[in-house]
Amino acid sequence: MSNLPASGKGLLFVMSGPSGTGKGTICGELIKSGNIFLSVSSTTREKRKGEIDGVTYNYTTVDEFEKMIAGGEMLEYAKYGDNYYGTPKKTVTEMLAAGKNVLLEIEPQGAALVKSKMPEAVLLFILPPSARELKKRLCERGRESDEEIAKRLQAAGWELSQAPLYNKMFVNDDLGECVERVGEYISEKTRERAFLDNLIEELQDI
User: Fold this and answer.
1) Tens digits of per-residue pLDDT, 6-15?
2) From CA 70, how far away is CA 86, in angstroms rounded?
3) How big, in percent rounded to 5, are the helix, strand and coil portions of the chain?
4) Residue 106, CA distances (Å) to 3, 134, 135, 196 in order
5) Reported pTM
6) How far is residue 143's CA from residue 140's CA, in Å, rounded to a whole number?
């Protein structure tokens, strides 16, 4: 993937998809190129085994999170049960201003909020190849109980209904190929943005 020149403004990409589609793995592969910055979300839930503070999530308290909300510091946030999840605004805006592309991995509700505040954001949705495969992937992860898997599958129905609202949908039938397709699309949008920015700048000099 190619990045915008430092003098330009970066592009914001938002990736969503039901649990089990592999979107987290896809994000991890994309950022290895060094040409896109993954913004880490904040949460008030407890850290799980194997998770790393500042990598998986920025873990914080309910009081601190609510202070960030009150101070207008969150680009988007939502509350599930007793826990908050959200995206701090500062890091995202600073990276975009520096000409860096930024990637957010968030659910559709948060994606809609980001799009309402930043209409230029490009929304990407990851689909499983089939319902059977999605259930298989969730079961093979071994992280959730049968009850939790059932809840995730139920939530997937609503999430999938939001997919047509996204700029681009990708089917993750083969991880390597899906990463390549998403990366190519990000590069295409980046080149398009750079071309248009340069054209506008040239036209303004007439």
Assistant:
1) 346 899 999 9
2) 13
3) 45, 20, 35
4) 22, 18, 20, 28
5) 0.86
6) 8
